[in-house]
Amino acid sequence: MKIDVLPVIEKIKKEIKEHREKLNRKPKLISITDDYTGATKAYLKSQKRIAKEYDVDFEIIETENLIETIKKYNEDKNVDGIFVARPTKTIKFIEVAKILNPAKDVEGVTPYNMGMNFYGVEEFVPCTAESAVKILEQTEELKSKKVAVIGRSITVGKPLAIMLENYGRDCTVNILNSKTKNMQEITKNSDIVIVAIGKANYVNMDFLKEGTTVIDVGINVVDGKLTGDVSKEVEKYCSVTPVPGGVGSVTSAILMRNVFRAAIKGGKI
Ligand SMILES: NC(=O)C1=CN([C@@H]2O[C@H](COP(=O)(O)OP(=O)(O)OC[C@H]3O[C@@H](n4cnc5c(N)ncnc54)[C@H](OP(=O)(O)O)[C@@H]3O)[C@@H](O)[C@H]2O)C=CC1
Ligand SMILES: Nc1nc(=O)c2c([nH]1)NC[C@@H]1CN(c3ccc(C(=O)N[C@@H](CCC(=O)O)C(=O)O)cc3)C=[N+]21
Q1: Which residue's CA is the closest to the ligand 1 atom numbered 30?
Q2: For residue 113, is it within any domain?
Q3: Quick one: which residues bind NADP(+) (predicted)?
Q4: Which residue's CA lies nearest to atom 21 of ligand 1?
Q5: Domain annotation covers residue 112
Q6: Among 227, 181, 231, which residue's Cα sits nearest to residue 208?
Q7: How many domains does the chain have?
Q8: Do residues 214 and 191 touch, judged by C-beta distance below 8 A?
Q9: What number is the ipTM of this complex?
Q10: How many CB atoms are closer than 10 A to CB 231?
């Protein structure tokens, strides 16, 4: 069965509408990349479309000098939100995270916003992590569920695992990585499996028991088409988010909501 994410998007749209009424001006998002290719290109293009839909001023900046560019927009009063695409080519992403202004950090990648998530304060958390959590909250009661998160990246796997463990959701989470042994044993023993690895069609029924809720975060471009990390056959036995039309479509809506949030906070953390 395919999981329908439209109700989640509707809720976010409602939040954005309330913010817009409060704000009374167009907020502005700057998306910066030093490697405008592949999944980054796909995402920035879809950001452009969605920014227009939500009436957000939007600009893509391609640069080889991330640090100077970020410093400039950190100070620019006309810019409410700054997004920097991963992976970065010219410097390590942590250098970006260290200098980005937390008040404009609409993807929650700075140590300040990451740390707040550890405290259970989820104001700016990585949009994809929030997207997966919002979809799950819509589909089922999370309390005491056993969850396997495959992938441990700083913008997806790790913050997502923390959010699911935070008080109120109370899941028990395993975070799996490329060195994990007996992966299939762990995933088969889970109620919920979240796949965020970037390998097309990698997870099939060998990893899952029937009836598992599966969240497919993967965005891979195969023969020019968006393809997830979960194989199509899984849909017959499990509830699974489609690609496209799943996690990715919620992610961009959350990013836009965060731009409104940052604008309303007016530069304060
Ligand atoms: N839908 C959306 O909105 C978004 C989608 N994405 C997509 O999600 C996917 C993951 O993104 P991201 O987290 O940024 O990617 P990264 O490349 O940063 O991280 C991938 C993670 O997957 C792990 N991994 C890779 N292969 C395996 C394997 N065979 N078994 C177990 N773990 C494995 C890696 O392990 P190790 O650490 O050991 O190397 C790593 O932790 C990509 O396809 C990306 O395009 C990303 C962001 C948003
Ligand atoms: N700092 C950072 N954060 C990211 O979240 C991030 C990143 N870097 N680098 C690249 C990957 C890839 N990624 C995509 C998300 C959505 C679509 C996409 O196409 N979305 C469509 C729909 C897709 C769908 O429906 O599933 C849309 O928004 O309309 C593509 C790619 C984000 N990433």
Answers
A1: 178
A2: no
A3: 151-153, 219
A4: 151
A5: no
A6: 231
A7: 2
A8: no
A9: 0.97
A10: 18
